[in-house]
Design brief:
Blueprint lengths: L1 H21 L1 H35 L3 E3 L6 E3 L6 H31 L2 H19 L6 H53 L10 H57 L1
Antiparallel strand pairs: 1-2
Helix pairs in contact: 1-4, 2-3, 2-5, 3-5, 3-6, 4-5, 5-6
Length: 258
């Protein structure tokens, strides 16, 4: 059993070294991070477009004459809370874009040949006494685990995040993004054309009802997108980092005990 465990550990280490040079995980994680970056940028652009439409509609004035008395109303002011939410939403989408950009940069840094060379040399130095059934130095074990984490923690986190996204969040993102785009068109359509600002009171009531429904739907879609990007760029990567760090500490302790 001990011999089998040693062979399995050496085989896994050899696979890690090969992956460090051939970069299959980096290529997959890079493509997924690039796709996430494009999604975040698209959501940011949609949010800014919606913000511009809201700013236009907020200045809309409608004239009604209940009982023959002329009254000028500004129902667009109902959009003030939504405008604040959209501004914060666009800031979060910009932050998500930056997070994916940082992930791409870290992938390139971790995949540098110098990192792969350092990992290879340390792995060989650690494996030699291990093959001879001797105990590898504790410091060398710590260095090896640290290099493995530095080399593979970002690709692993990116791939895990993308797997969860494709399995559970892709449909939510598509629905939320489409909802924000449709909200921009719907709110823009509520603005009266030039010379058509006069409405009867029952038309105004319908106008306000449509505006309220659009606001509710837009808030729902914005929050849905915030949850998707928050999970994908912060919560899931941190969870993977924590799991891998705990695993690294366990491996270090096990290696020191052998």
């Amino acid at each position: 059993m001990e011999a089998l465990r040693r062979k399995l550990l050496l085989a896994l280490l050899a696979v890690a070294v090969v992956c460090a040079w051939l970069r299959p995980l980096d290529d997959l994680a890079g493509a997924q991070a690039q796709a996430g970056f494009k999604r975040a940028v698209a959501s940011f652009a949609t949010a800014r477009a919606l913000n511009a439409v809201i700013s236009v509609v907020q200045g809309t004035e409608l004239s009604v004459q209940p009982l023959g008395v002329g009254v000028t109303l500004t129902p667009g002011q109902m959009l003030d809370p939504l405008n604040d939410l959209v501004e914060r939403f666009s800031d979060l989408m910009l932050a998500a874009s930056v997070a994916f950009g940082v992930q791409l940069l870290l992938l390139e840094m971790g995949a540098h040949w110098g990192m792969s060379l350092a990992l290879t040399l340390v792995a060989l130095a650690w494996a030699w006494p291990y093959i001879k059934r001797k105990q590898s130095p504790a410091l060398l074990t710590r260095v090896l685990v640290a290099l493995l984490l530095v080399r593979f923690i970002v690709p692993a986190a990116g791939m895990a995040s993308d797997v969860v996204y494709r399995g559970f969040m892709q449909a939510q993102y598509a629905a939320g993004q489409q909802g924000i785009e449709q909200a921009s068109q719907a709110i823009g359509a509520l603005a009266p054309a030039d010379g058509a600002a006069d409405k009867k009171w029952w038309q105004l009531d319908r106008h306000i009802q449509q505006l309220g429904d659009t606001i509710d739907q837009t808030v729902e879609h914005a929050i849905r997108l915030i949850v998707v990007f928050l999970l994908q760029t912060l919560i899931l990567p941190l969870l993977v980092f924590w799991i891998l760090l705990r695993s690294g500490r366990m491996l270090t302790a096990a290696g020191a005990g052998n």
